[in-house]
Amino acid sequence: MNRRRFIQQTSAGLLAANGVSAQSAAPLINSIEKFTLKRGRDGSGPSWFHPRPCLVPGKDGPVVFMTMQEIRGSDFFLPVHWMESRDLGKTWSEPQPVPSLGRNSATDDRGDESVCDVVPQFHPQSGSILALGHNVFYKDKSFDRKQPPRCPVYAVYKDGQWSERKRLIWDDPRGATIYTNNCGQREVLEDGSIALVMSFGTKTTSRSAAGVRCSFDGETLSILKVGREIKHAAGRGLLEPSLVRYRGKFYATLRAEDNRGYVAASDDGLDFAEKQPWCWDDGTPLEMSTTQQHWLPHSEALHLVYTRKDLSNEKVIRWRSPLFIAQVDLKTLRLIRDTERVVIPMSGDGVNAADEVPLMGNFQTLNVSANESWVTDGEMLPKHGFKGDLVQGKVRWSRPNGLV
Predict the structure, then answer these.
(1) I need a surface site. Which of 45, 239, 303, 362 has the fewest CB within 10 A?
(2) 108-158: per-residue pLDDT in tens?
């Protein structure tokens, strides 16, 4: 594994370039270091995308289980693969395909059905891993822009075996065109049920979002309840929702298409209060361009990982580099600006040579130990065959994280 040292505490120049002073580092973060897990930007290997890990307890220590898939074009992915690490990321097994999450040949005019945007999560009550994504349709070697109705699909991994592909059923006309939790973080509750937020819409409506409670017995995922609808009329609406439960409350972060991202809170994970745009603690909205955000909880504070517009990346597509992290003020649901750090830095010049900057933004967060958390991302260079590296930002905490 090729490693490139990146300690942000001593990188005052890079921090200043991103509007952050070296003296304003978040007190909980001791250091951030960048690693390259798999090379693809130089053409020496596949360009892995959607790298999403989860932690699985084991007799000899925790195992990190990761799903990802190779990217070959805009929204065009090869079958889902998985790999694992039994030494907290020092070494990894070779990626293997998930048999049930590949591409099915077309039987009608809808095109080939495949799977993307998969997020695995360990379910302790059943001892299984639920890998939840959604279906996607391809014609030849490209994304079919006239997609048939789409829905969540999943497979279960247990005792070294993958289940068949299944669909999460929701017979509600509000999701006639699409309903999905794609790329979303979710929570396993004490009774084994699963809390998530779903995005849904029709051909004539922008997508709304709502909290959802599901049952899961280690084999079948079923919807039990759907909460209050959160509406948003701009563009396609609310996309790629992520949920976290922190200090007894649920928080959702939502991708949108009006240069904003949104946050909402709930006591039960079903009925959310009115959403509000992500802002700095002085009330200034962040400029975000249709890119997901994800949560990174610590026992002493809740953090958000995100992309945003900045002087250093103003020519980068959707400002999808670098990745930032900041602490959330739970009283106001705003980001504390003095705590912002760069968690995975930009590679290249985002103003004068933006086409050469690898894009990020399809990432995942994970607490792997009391002292360390990860952000994993798959780069892509659209002007260079969508090549990119599989990269990782390691956050090391100055105080132990009791959430692991």
Answers:
(1) 45
(2) 777 899 999 999 999 999 999 999 999 999 988 889 888 999 999 999 999
Integer angstrom CA distances of residue 267 from 200, 272, 301: 22, 8, 18
CA 268, chain centre distance (Å): 22
CB 210 within 8 A of CB 184: no
Q: Which two tokens stand for residue 124?
A: 């302790």
Which one, of 282, 108, 86, 268, lies nearest residue 193 by Cα? 268
CA 49-243-386 angle, to 5 degrees, is: 15
Residues 6+ apart with CB under 8 A from 300: 28, 399, 401
**Band of residue 3 on the pLDDT scale cut at 50, 70, 90:** very low
283-326 pLDDT, tens digit each: 999 999 999 999 999 999 999 999 999 999 999 999 999 999 99
CA–CA gap between residue 89 and residue 369 (Å, rounded): 11
Distance from C-alpha of 254 to C-alpha of 277, rounded to nearest angstrom? 9
Structural tokens at position 222: 């079923």
Average of per-residue pLDDT across 26-47: 93
User: Helix, strand, or coil here: 174?
Assistant: helix
Is there a cis peptide before residue 345, judged by omega within 30 degrees of 0?
Answer: no
Q: At residue 55, what are phi and psi to the nearest 5 degrees?
A: -105, 130
CA dist 220 and 168 (Å) reads 8
Count of other CB atoms within 10 angstroms of residue 123 = 19
- SS3 of residue 317 by DSSP: helix
Question: For 178-209, how does the pLDDT look when each residue is reduced to its tens digit (9 = 90+)?
Answer: 999 999 999 999 999 999 999 999 999 999 99
175 φ, ψ to 5°?
Answer: -110, 30
Residue 89 has pLDDT above 50, yes or no: yes
At 162, list the tokens: 């993958």
Contact at 8 Å (CB) between 157 and 101? no
Q: How far is CA 172 from CA 23, 109, 289, in A?
A: 52, 24, 30
Judge whether 199 and 237 are in contact, CB under 8 Å.
yes
pTM equals: 0.92
